[in-house]
Amino acid sequence: MPEKAICIFIDEVLRRQRLRLNGNLEKYPLFKDLDEESLQSLLSNSYINDFGTAQEIVQQGEPPEYLYYIITGGVKTLRYSQNGEETIIRMLSTGDTFMEAVIFMSGHSPVCAKTLVPSRLLMIPAEAVRRQALHDPQFACNLLRIVTRHYKSAMQQIDGILAKSPLERLGYYFLQQHLEQGCDSLDVSLPFQKSMIANYLGMKPETLSRALSQMKNLGVNVDHAKLTLKDAYTLCHFCDAETSQNCPHANHATCPRHTGKSCANCH
Amino acid sequence: MPEKAICIFIDEVLRRQRLRLNGNLEKYPLFKDLDEESLQSLLSNSYINDFGTAQEIVQQGEPPEYLYYIITGGVKTLRYSQNGEETIIRMLSTGDTFMEAVIFMSGHSPVCAKTLVPSRLLMIPAEAVRRQALHDPQFACNLLRIVTRHYKSAMQQIDGILAKSPLERLGYYFLQQHLEQGCDSLDVSLPFQKSMIANYLGMKPETLSRALSQMKNLGVNVDHAKLTLKDAYTLCHFCDAETSQNCPHANHATCPRHTGKSCANCH
DNA sequence: CGCACCATTGATATGGATCAATAACTGTGG
DNA sequence: CCACAGTTATTGATCCATATCAATGGTGCG
To answer: Which of A142-146, A156-160, B182-186 has the lowest mean pLDDT?
Structure first.
């Protein structure tokens, strides 16, 4: 159903462009600035498929067959370790893509992808992606931007795990959610269940729970999957130089980071 | 000195191509399959510079100005956390490139790069790299392959830290060194000092030291910076499905993985 | 209503960090 | 060639943070 794929895709792109978050947090620009010809070539062989909850879309150790674009839904990518435990690498929702990087790795997929909720996915064959990347440098550069962003967040994950306490990791995660959600509201919603977030942050659910109760003392109220901040600067404790680049308050007189006010509290 | 850069570069490429390790472990193919024109365009603005030990080549938080290719020497890339500690992201030596990924990230560099020993580096201006990527899809795809490989090893680092014991992480590291060094000798040399390796593996030097003494019981003798394996299968305990793809013994009857022999010992 | 599943909370255990002391090695200058 | 200082590695003793174990409470769904 190629035509159908294109229709929905165009819809999606338009929606995305309107939705660009904070200007610079615009989501993964896979299709950005592509000419009509490239789009056609990419999408004419693509499919749209619906998946149920907890379905394995890609198996670890299998060659990747498609690049996936989440039209609606939620997906996690993870790795199984020898003992069978899972380590979540990314948690994705509407508008995200996955397997873009894996397609350009040699060998089999080092990750598995699994739906968290019923999801509708656009599937672009891996071979078409590779072919198009060799023909259209704009597309290749879009891929580069996406993969480097993933790589950067993987680096942040690494030193977060090694150098931050569970409380700090959680605060950092909340801050990023807050910024992604436009940061005009004092409410932040948690898009995934807590045990997922715990795994993603490299801690056990119990530890996350305890970190949450510490959060309350810092002015973050947790009610089920919704956080309520005491004020706009509650999460500034957890900000760093990289993240502040995405914060609209940064470099304003109101930013505690900028005035140095809250750094006394930071630890 | 553009001509000089090209001369040494050509030398280097030839050397690399002869040196390809195990066929599939061939190092970062930045210049692979580029036409003469692309090479000229990339290198005509490049420089070669010598750096001393422990020099900061790139500062964290600064915009990246160059892509670096290590002609000779050793470099680490790392991140400083708030408390000032460093987390090593990669440890690089002759033939490696760095900052390829950072050049395509928006904003400033999330990592710092520092020489470990006196090093001679080929420096290609970031702007030239970006321009060339937009003009030459082959070059863009080479970059994609490099960055995705880094991303993959970052993922391995993440679940190594979260799911493996220090001993296992060390064994895995030894195994990879062994494979990179051609695995025809039972001697493995450690290319970096132990405190660096410890940091890279997410543990303290004391912990590495203790893990080393456990290694002796498993048949790995450590003498200064040189390991001696008891037999070719000593490190098989630490192998996983991904790594076995790079092992010449895999799928042979001699592989303990394949026969299931050593998996009993694994834990 | 009752059965899963998820989250929370408390008690305990443990692995790796930290602290501290010593030993080995590196390089430098006399 | 040796003496010395500075760095790096090892080893032992202790401590602490987070995992683990265990019990309870809450929530949603059939």
So the answer is: B182-186
